[in-house]
Amino acid sequence: MSMKFSGAYTSLKREELMQKVQMRMSERRFLHVLGVEETAVALAAKYGASEERASIAALTHDYAKERPDEEFELIIQRDGYDPELLAYGNAIWHGLVGASMVERELGIEDEEILQAIRLHTTGAAEMSLLDKIIYVADYIEPGRDFPGVKEARELSLLDLDKAVAYETKHTLMHLIEKEQKIYPKTIETYNYWVSKKRGKDHR
Ligand code: DGI
Ligand code: FE
Ligand code: FE
């Protein structure tokens, strides 16, 4: 892939950003990140979002995933996040709080990119096109292999909103199956994108 950055969102060249991300994670996770980038750029081209923003958000979405819990706990307490967040773990922190590390450490200040990083795990009721692209690309990138991924990939090419709904429903079912604690935002995403008890005008 040869996405050339304009300089609007980061002063780093793509190769430089890739290297900073790679330094922070295992080879396996870095390959996942590259898969998300490829998928996100393709979805951005298809649906008319900024391919450059999609590339940068994808490359940085899991930037904080391998940070120790203690570092997140310090930031949550120091920076005025809802203390309820402390009851969760890395799964919820690495995007929501990780976006602030992307901003401070990588100098990426674009609010659309930061929001896509914040929402990439839980989704939200209100999601921008870029938010949806990163949320879905994370789920369907070529390295993912789980029952249902083929359907999710097909939906992503037909109707991005349906892909968001599919992913949300299946993630929630998986979390409930494992008796995991559900973050309220994940429920909000379900209620908005999946629940049928809502007027059509809500989409
Ligand atoms: O970081 P990735 O593994 O690429 O993917 P991700 O950020 O979408 O998800 C990280 C994990 O978070 C994944 O195992 C699903 C889980 N997750 C999503 N919503 C919730 C959640 N975990 C809990 N406990 N609660 C949630 O609401
Ligand atoms: Fe993630
Ligand atoms: Fe990811």
From TrEMBL:
The keyword Calcium does not apply. The keyword Iron applies. Transmembrane segments: none annotated. It is an enzyme of class 3 (hydrolase). Coiled coil: none annotated. InterPro entries: Diverse_Catalytic_Enzymes (IPR051094), HD/PDEase_dom (IPR003607), HD_domain (IPR006674), YqeK (IPR005249). One of its GO terms (molecular function) is metal ion binding. Its EC number is 3.6.1.41. Keywords: Hydrolase, Iron, Metal-binding, Nucleotide-binding. It catalyses: P(1),P(4)-bis(5'-adenosyl) tetraphosphate + H2O = 2 ADP + 2 H(+). Pfam families: HD. Residues 29-143 form the HD domain. SUPFAM superfamilies: HD-domain/PDEase-like. It comes from the Bacteria. This is bis(5'-nucleosyl)-tetraphosphatase (symmetrical). It comes from Candidatus Enterococcus dunnyi. The lineage of its organism: Bacteria, Bacillati, Bacillota, Bacilli, Lactobacillales.
